[in-house]
Design goal:
This protein has 666 residues and is mostly helical. The protein contains 29 helices and no strands. α4 runs antiparallel to α15 and α20 runs antiparallel to α29. The longest helix is centred in the middle third of the chain and has 34 residues.
Length: 666
């Protein structure tokens, strides 16, 4: 009997997918490297030709045409029906609203030498409202913060800023909340409005100012309208998200009980999304504060105007004192609205006895607030803040002393660091961008955009490049591009180092994250002041301020990305003998590519807005063009074109990095 022995069949092992993906990544990197090599070769041959450079006082045909449009609008503002019955009416309504609030809390009203509600009444109202919306701790913070404004000698400036914020937030929420609810209920409307919100949030704050002054002139009305446009998108997005986050089963239960769509909205959707909507209000207030301070460039009153004037005269002490007031106001407004979003949940978790005591106490507090308002309306001592702002003078003097000491003792270190970054990184890259022929730079940008982001990103980059050439400020745009890219590289270095550290260590995350959250509350202007003291009025000052301004958001995104890497994957790598460096570079960072790309996207947008603001402290380029356009009538058209160039750079950055993020996560 023979036994048949089956020969083992050879099986083909399937190709592992990882090498394929790696090969694809390497090939894309090699294409980008090849593009850069070709660019460098063409730069060596064609350097200094067809650079489209333009002197600071020179204008193109587009700039002159924009000047003519500005002059024509000014001449026909009171006769053109569109302005007479639409734009002028909007300006009148907003201007009356702002003037009313200013006369109420900040500026003399009518024949009165003081506002209707003096400092004591405002402090009392701030404390009472904070207590009613949050708790007694936040109320104490509000009272201390508002009193500090008076001690600084900046009471009227602070109240002017607060008046603009209140008006802008009020108008913004009138539109934002209904639009957010609509976007939350309608998928079609959400798809329509999302591109507009993306565009509005991509644009740096500077860009809103120039076109609005063309229509609404300079002053508080234009500043408020610009703030409304800038501050509304967060409220719309967050409200829509809140409505969509309500569980579908809850809505279905309400429908099954016969609730109408109106009843479902008012009784179910809005109450259940209230906390998230209040967070949207918080973001709107923070955006309004940032915009109101920058709107000082178009003659908006308040703390921003003090900071701008001090920066332009390099008065670090005065700028620091006013900047500190802006920080205090940001902290107070942020804490009040943040605590308000969680008060309802805290009340539900507390016992009924606390609620029974709270209402009588609030009633008594309301009586006290009314008495303080009456006193501040009636008596000069309660209306006009006493003293001469000695605390503010001491703060300014201390800031000047620290600045002098730093310049005397740290100049070697700071100048060495500045020169190393400037000469080793910024100048070579800027020379490559500004001295290459414009068509070489444009072709390189389009090619890189297509490789990293795909065909649509390449088309968008091509359109942006073409329009950049048309603005007539190509050379200044490339200078701004160089500063933006260098600052973004530094942001990502900080983001990777601290983001990985926070992502790997919960203790570090708990210690560092509150500082990052506080840093994101501060308006961009504030970051310029300390670095102006350290590095003087140079473009490097703007770059360092941009890095510090943009780093918190990049660090948090990368930390969250590293934290989402499965723990089992990290444990498997550890069991395979990988050390810490290998786990970070071979496992956690590669698996966080989507977060890295998103951090790059947000870092670029934040950096671009801050680099442009740096035009106030010697950054030059597009930021200077915009500022000069506000202050010199003959350069208005060039400033408007520079604003458009900033928008194009922002759109180009945003589309390339977003498309790259989608391709990375796919």
């Amino acid at each position: 009997m023979t036994v048949a022995v089956r020969k083992p069949q050879k099986t083909r092992r399937p190709e592992p997918p990882a090498p394929v993906a790696r090969a694809r990544r390497i090939s894309r990197s090699m294409v980008v490297a090849a593009i850069l090599v070709v660019w460098l070769l063409l730069f060596a041959v064609l350097r200094g030709t067809q650079t489209l450079s333009l002197a600071a006082a020179d204008l193109t045909g587009l700039h002159r045409w924009l000047n003519d449009v500005n002059d024509s609008i000014g001449a026909n503002r009171n006769s053109n029906p569109l302005f007479l019955y639409f734009f002028n009416e909007i300006r009148l309504v907003i201007d009356n609203l702002v003037t009313f609030v200013q006369h109420l809390i900040s500026q003399p009203s009518g024949t009165r030498p003081v506002p209707q509600i003096g400092w004591l009444g405002v402090v009392g109202l701030a404390g009472y409202v904070s207590w009613a919306l949050a708790d007694w701790r936040v109320a104490l913070l509000a009272v201390a913060g508002f009193t500090f404004f008076g001690l600084q000698g900046l009471w009227q400036e602070s109240m002017d800023t607060l008046a603009l914020i209140l008006c802008a937030v009020f108008v913004a929420l009138l539109f934002a909340i209904p639009l957010g609810v609509w976007a939350g209920l309608s998928d079609r409307f959400n798809r329509i409005i999302t591109p507009f919100l993306d565009f509005m949030q991509t644009m740096p704050t500077f860009v809103y100012l120039a076109p609005l002054t063309l229509i609404f002139l300079i002053g508080g009305a234009s500043a408020t309208i610009a703030t409304v446009i800038y501050a509304a998108p967060p409220a719309i997005r967050i409200t829509a998200h809140a409505i969509r986050s309500v569980p579908a089963t809850t809505v279905e239960a309400a429908d099954s009980m016969g609730a109408t769509p109106r009843q479902s909205l008012l009784k179910v959707l809005l109450p259940m999304s209230r906390r998230t909507v209040v967070m949207g209000v918080n973001q709107t207030i923070m955006a309004a504060l940032a915009m109101v301070t920058i709107a000082a460039l178009i003659d908006a009153p308040g703390l921003g105007k003090t900071v701008v004037q001090a920066l332009q005269s390099l008065d670090v002490g005065t700028a620091f004192n006013a900047g500190l007031a802006i920080v205090v106001m940001a902290i107070v407004l942020d804490r009040v609205t943040t605590a308000a979003s969680g008060r309802a949940e805290a009340a539900r978790n507390s016992d009924g006895r606390f609620l029974r005591w709270r209402r009588p106490l609030l009633a008594a507090g309301g009586v006290v607030a009314v008495v303080l308002v009456y006193l501040s309306h009636t008596y000069v001592w309660a209306a006009d803040f006493p003293g001469q702002g000695g605390t503010g003078s001491s703060i300014a003097k201390a800031a000047d002393d620290v600045t002098t000491w730093a310049q005397d003792h740290l100049s070697g270190l700071t100048n060495g660091f500045r020169d190393a970054i400037t000469n080793g990184l910024l100048n070579p890259f800027q020379t490559l961008l500004t001295d290459s022929p414009w068509w070489v730079v444009g072709a390189a940008l389009i090619a890189v955009g297509a490789v990293l982001g795909g065909r649509r990103a390449g088309v968008t980059t091509a359109v942006c490049v073409g329009l950049l050439v048309g603005t007539g400020v190509w050379s200044d745009g490339m200078t701004t591009l160089a500063s933006t890219v260098v600052a973004t590289v530094l942001v990502m270095l900080l983001g990777v180092v601290f983001g990985v550290w926070m992502g790997r260590s919960p203790l570090v995350d708990r210690l560092v994250r509150p500082t990052l959250d506080a840093a994101q509350v501060m308006p961009p202007f504030v970051y310029l002041v300390p670095f102006l003291a350290l590095f003087g009025a140079t473009r490097f000052t703007a770059i360092v301020a941009a890095v510090v301004y943009a780093a918190p958001v990049a660090i948090k995104i990368i930390a969250d990305g590293v934290r989402t890497v499965p723990e089992t994957t990290v444990e498997a790598a550890t069991a395979a003998g990988c050390n810490t460096w290998q786990i970070i570079t071979k496992v956690q960072l590669p698996m966080s590519r989507g977060a890295l790309t998103l951090a790059t996207n947000q870092g670029l947008i934040y950096v671009l807005s801050m680099v442009v603001v740096g035009g106030l402290v010697g950054a030059g380029a597009l930021g200077y063009d915009v500022v000069a356009g506000f202050s010199q009538g003959q350069l208005y058209g060039k400033g408007l074109a520079a604003g458009l160039a900033i928008v194009l750079l922002g759109v180009m950055f945003d589309r390339i990095t977003q498309a790259a993020a989608r391709r990375t996560s796919a």
